[in-house]
Design goal:
The protein is of the alpha/beta class and 229 residues long. 62% of the residues lie in helices and 10% in strands. The protein has a five-stranded mixed beta sheet, sandwiched between helices. The N and C termini lie far apart (41 Å).
């Protein structure tokens, strides 16, 4: 989808959402005002902004399709067709995001637009995700989850999605970041979370992180925010 198509699609979704879900329409309108004065060529030169917009368009489209179904039974049936992680995202986290006040949204919109979005652990997260899939698990990534909900990955193997943050920060900063992460998850009413810090000098750390992630996806109880390093 080209930049101008993205802008046109956003406007179309706002119009559609205004009669189906006003809170989603408001959030989409906020995003539209953020990008509407940027020329298509300039927008194309901002890959993270484009990627975020495409995610929002995809998620909003799916949400509106579900909410447009004429009965609760049909909506429930649509959710039942999804994987556990998709159901967790579309049935819980995504609507929580556009229905709530997101104190971080203004800040990370600026960073995305300025090209200051820093994915220092991106290669590590990709390796973890690939390993999870090889072990018959699944994962989910979204800018909204990463930047607003302190969640690099949502993982699942046996129908129980788990929010995970991955970091390589130094030990003295680790506890501070862990506490901020824990507070963020609680504020979004995310019931379970795993904070994984790793030593990049350890050649086996990806395997260890995946072991911990999948085990806790299966067994970590609600209300727990576990730190592993």
């Amino acid at each position: 989808m080209q930049a101008q198509e993205i802008k046109d699609r956003l406007k179309s979704l706002i119009e559609q959402a205004s009669s189906i879900d006003r809170n989603l329409a408001r959030r989409l309108d906020e995003i539209n005002r953020w990008v509407k004065d940027i020329k298509p060529g300039s927008l194309t030169a901002k890959p993270f902004v484009i990627a975020f917009l495409l995610e929002v368009i995809t998620d909003s489209t799916i949400w509106l399709i579900i909410k447009s179904l004429p009965s609760e039974e049909e909506q429930k049936a649509k959710f039942e067709m999804m994987t556990p992680i998709e159901r967790y995202w579309y049935g819980y986290l995504f609507p929580r995001w556009f229905n709530a006040s997101d104190s971080k949204f203004y800040i990370w919109k600026q960073k995305l637009m300025a090209g200051e979005f820093n994915q220092v652990d991106d290669d590590i997260i990709k390796s973890i995700a690939q390993d999870i899939v090889q072990r018959e698990g699944s994962f989910w990534q979204r800018y909204i989850a990463d930047l607003s909900m302190a969640t690099d990955l949502i993982v699942s193997r046996n129908n129980q999605p788990l929010c995970i943050q991955v970091t390589s920060v130094s030990e003295e900063l680790n506890q501070q970041k862990y506490e901020a992460w824990q507070n963020t998850l609680r504020s979004w009413e995310i019931e379970r979370g795993l904070f994984l810090s790793y030593n990049p000098k350890d050649t086996n750390f990806v395997n260890q992180l995946v072991n911990v992630a999948l085990y806790n996806s299966d067994y970590l109880s609600g209300g727990k925010y576990l730190k592993f390093s």
